[in-house]
Amino acid sequence: MTIQVVDRKMYLAGKWVKRDRLIEVIDPQDNRVIDTVPAATSKDMLQCIEEAKEGAEISAALPVHQRMGIINKAADYIEEHNERFARTISREGSKTIREARKEVMRCIQTLRISAEEARRIHGETIPFDQAPGSEDRVGYYYRFPIGIIGAITPFNDPLNLVAHKVGPAIASGNAIIVKPATVTPLSALLLAEAFEEAGLPPKVLSVITGYGSEIGDTLITHPAVRMISFTGGLEAGEEIVRKAGLKKIGMELGSNSPVIVLEDADLEEAAASTVSGAFWAAGQNCIGVQRVYVQESVMDAFQKRFIELTRQYRMGDKQSEQTDMGPLITEKEAIRVEKLVNEAIDKGAVLLAGGRREGAFYAPTVLTNVPETCQIAKEEIFGPVVLFYKVKDLETAIQLSNAVDYGLQAGIFTSSINKSHTAIRKMNVGGIMINDSSDYRIDAMPFGGVKQSGLGREGITFAIQEMTEPKVVCFKLSDA
């Protein structure tokens, strides 16, 4: 089966264009080519940016009710074609069809919230007469769009994470250029199709497919691009910061999220939640569970139940309704995860489940006794592997949770409100989920981390704040 996405074209400033040089889109499950997309050049990106200058003016001039209407119509289009969107997500990426359908539903929610938040881009009055000599002045501030936004998006949520940048950008009156992940460009192109069908004026949105090494620097460094919104890995994020120059930067750079399980927790609920949180989308999830700190008195019982549920996890055909987990995004990534696990085992870690690779598939894996010197204990795994640690008490768990360079989200399972608040105060993360795994998020909440997990916040309201600037207006009055 071949997925056709607008005749293998990319969306350049409101026009669907072809290029002679193509990039193959490959299903990681069987390495079949499912489609091709244009390999854009730096010249294409420069043209796109020039067009986006006019697009930014068009977008800023759109009345709020028109922005809302367009975004809602795009959400309607996705809702009407939800299975097509879900099949595309599943075929080009790692998600099972059930996981992909959930992503489509979240994308619709993201756009609906974006439409609603367009009406809530407020300013405030300013009491200028608080300063002596300013008794005859009144004024306010309002927020205005910054212009052109460059969005660089990852493969693991190829539709909804694009919507998290496009929805707020259009809601706040900006133009946006999306450079989707090279391995999963089709979902982003479908989103562009939805906005075109919704009546978005040309030049406001572009989705440019190509290799980051060829078009990324042009987007990142161009002075007309006033913000770069990036979701991806730490090394790429650091490179963007070095190159971007004087512009806004929004970054979500991943994590190696901890979950704490205390002796007063509901162990069944904790096990089910952390298994799902560890292996959703084959573990390729920035808030996925990576490290689990379990109080020693319940370690054996919790670990036993976790492993039972892990062994029940069904790995296989992504298109099957019965499958729980598909492959990693490429066989290269599966080999990388395999090497990390093998290094840990060679250094003394104990394998409790999984540890098997077949092509791009890597079985859900549980390790314990992992030495802290192992790379897998310090870095983001971004694969279906979870590490277990026995701890004496909450303080020890918090100390170990914080002893890494990341801080995106965390989870804690406990029936104690006091212990919950201790964790809330002391854990160095951007979000903490009580009696949920770290892998919980709604699209309206502020989302982002501390330390090397990123800069700024996503979540529609908070993304809009990043994508706008305040302008102060002051009137000097006279008696005449």
UniProtKB/TrEMBL annotation:
Query: Which family would the database say this protein is a member of?
Result: Belongs to the aldehyde dehydrogenase family.
Whether Oxidoreductase counts among this entry's keywords is yes
First-level EC class: oxidoreductase
| Assigned EC number | 1.2.1.97
Catalytic activity line of the entry = (2S)-3-sulfolactaldehyde + NAD(+) + H2O = (2S)-3-sulfolactate + NADH + 2 H(+)
Sorted keywords for this record are:
Oxidoreductase
User: What is the organism of origin for this protein?
Assistant: Bacillus thermotolerans
What is the role of the protein in this entry? Part of the sulfo-TAL (or sulfo-SFT) pathway, a D-sulfoquinovose degradation pathway that produces sulfolactate (SL). Catalyzes the oxidation of 3-sulfolactaldehyde (SLA) to sulfolactate (SL).
Instruction: Spell out the protein name for this chain.
Output: 3-sulfolactaldehyde dehydrogenase
List each copy of the Aldehyde dehydrogenase domain by range.
Answer: 16-473
Entries under InterPro entries matching the protein: Ald_DH/histidinol_DH, Ald_DH_C, Ald_DH_N, Aldehyde_DH_dom, ALDH-related_metabolic_enz
Its ancestry begins with: Bacteria, Bacillati, Bacillota, Bacilli, Bacillales
Q: Name one GO molecular function term.
A: lactaldehyde dehydrogenase (NAD+) activity
